[in-house]
Amino acid sequence: MRPACLARAPGMQGWGGTVPASDSAALPAMAPARRRSAPLLARAMRGGTPLLLLLPGLLLTGIIILYPIADLGWTAFHEVSRFGKVLDTAGLINFRGLLNDPLFAPALWRTLIWTVAVVGGALLLSLPVALILNDDFIGRGLARTIVMLPWAVSLTMTAVVWRWGLNGRGGLLNASLMELGIISQPIEWLGQPVLAFAVETAIGILVSIPFTTTILLGGLASLPGDIYEAGMLDGTTPWQSFRHLTLPLLKPFLNIAIVLNVIYVFNSFPIIWVMTEGGPADETDILVTYLYKLAFRFGQLGKASAISLAMFAILLVFTLIYVRLRMREELATKQEGAANAAEN
Questions:
Q1: 113 Cα distance to chain centroid
Q2: Which of 160, 193, 198, 284 is the most buried (most CB within 10 A)?
């Protein structure tokens, strides 16, 4: 006799006997339940998969970004020795010290001027350069390489070369200008505060052009060509095409260039430090060089941490405000487009 588990089918006579009818009715009812529960479990697992995949990156971001900010906050609210040992709680003493420091406000003001001038100048010069490099001409690849080449050189080495060239005694710039008869005696380019800061700003613009041009070239390469062909058929001039087609379509890339350049330039250290170290008489200091002096020359680590938090807060507020304004502008543009479409 064969075992009962080898019955042919529920509710039928088989080798193992007859399966009760009640069991035969229950088995088909349980199968759809299993089929329904399986997709639910699969969907739940699929819903949690993106979070699991993002979790390592989020943890790494927290370690790299959040931990230093928390450590800066801890240091800023404590007294710290020049060797980095945290002493007693200081409360807001370090922040009050910044407000009472006669060098902090001028450094903050120069930082804003430096950032606006460098970012604005880089955008104004990079846009025509990107438009030229986007055209098809003989030697375009070589021209792009020449424009991008300074990007491969570190800012420190660039600043060292410019410091040699702008030397007031034997610098290349003074020698060239005197040979051409433009000046009769050497100029101390880095010895006068206003002139030194203007020269450093100009160099900051030059070193920012390759990065900005790269972003704008990527934007120009993504623009559809059929709209320009339609514009040519309608008789638009090159200026009208640039103003009404290129510039509006390039706005997202301009926004990216502005935000990234502001963050980089606001925190830019090598150019000013290598060329003048914030001098003469601290008249070319920006916040990041002033912070460096406080931390590593004067040993005021708590005060330097307070400046770091202030810089982080300024950049965060700028980024949030700028993104908010851009979102409002895009929303207004979409609403205007929808209204025009409804009218037509």
A1: 19
A2: 284
In 3D, which of 326, 307, 338 has the Cα closest to residue 95? Answer: 307
Is the pLDDT at 16 greater than 90? The verdict is: no
Closest CA to 255 of 329, 322, 336: 322
Write the pLDDT tens digit of every residue in 59-93.
888 888 888 888 888 888 878 777 767 777 777 88
* Residues found in the chain: 344
What's the CA gap between 196 and 155, in Å, rounded? 17
Q: Any idea what the Cα angle at residue 94 is, between residues 89 and 96, rounded to 5°?
A: 125
- Global pTM? 0.78
Task: For 197-228, write each residue's pLDDT tens digit.
Answer: 999 999 999 999 999 999 999 899 888 878 88
- Residue 280 preceded by cis peptide, ω within 30: yes
Q: What is the pLDDT of residue 151?
A: 82
* Contact in structure between 275 and 196 (CB atoms under 8 Å): yes
Between vectors from CA 272 to CA 268 and to CA 277, what angle results, nearest 5°?
A: 125
Q: Is it the case that residue 19 has pLDDT exceeding 70? A: no
Here the tokens at position 117 are 């001038």
Query: Tell me: the pLDDT tens digits for 226-281?
Result: 888 888 888 888 888 888 888 888 988 998 899 899 999 999 999 999 999 998 88
Domains of the chain, first to last? 104-284 (1.10.3720.10)
